[in-house]
Amino acid sequence: MPFYFTYPIDNWDEFIGYCEEGVSDVFIVGELAFDLERVAAAAHEKNIRIRCYPNVCQTRWNGYKTGLTTFFIRPEDLYLYEDYIDVIEFDLTPNFLYQQETYYTIYFHDKKWEGNLQNIIKGLKIPINNYYLLGNEFGKRRINCQKRCLKNNRCNYCEVLVELAKTIEDSDYLELYKRREE
User: Fold this and answer.
1) How many CB atoms lie within 10 A of CB 35?
2) What is the rounded average pLDDT of the residues 82-90?
3) Are 50 and 81 in contact (CB under 8 A)?
4) Is 129 in contact with 138 (CB distance < 8 Å)?
5) What span, in angstroms and rounded, lies between the C-alpha atoms of 80 and 150?
6) Using N-to-C axis directions, what is the helix angle for 173-181 and 157-170, rounded to 10°?
7) What is the mean pLDDT of the chain?
């Protein structure tokens, strides 16, 4: 009989252990969520589905400065994860019916969010307007980045992106850009 644990898995030891137990699904968070090509290949080889909550900063450590180094998926980036994540669920509070419809509309109908990511991503530590994160490069980089930023400081893409977004938001650049489009 198929079964899975709702406990999130964030490292290869746990992942392999769960696979050996014969689970049908795994919830991926932390470092594994930034190594999705390898994780998906290993899981799918054993017919194990990968599940996630795209609307939650998923990590076991709450000390990260920006929160952008935690796993979550923006609505604009959801399509990038189709080959890796099999089941999308939303982490909901007691008003779940209203929230479920809202998240469904944002992620599957609108496929974008042009406001503060803290309004849709639970646990994000900083206010950052998603409108200023500029395109889907953010999602593309995170799928297989393996969190190098925290391992050897060779990547600071997320930190730079936060600063760039703040600079654009605080400047007149957006007004100039909007006028240029008109």
Assistant:
1) 20
2) 94
3) no
4) no
5) 23
6) 80
7) 84
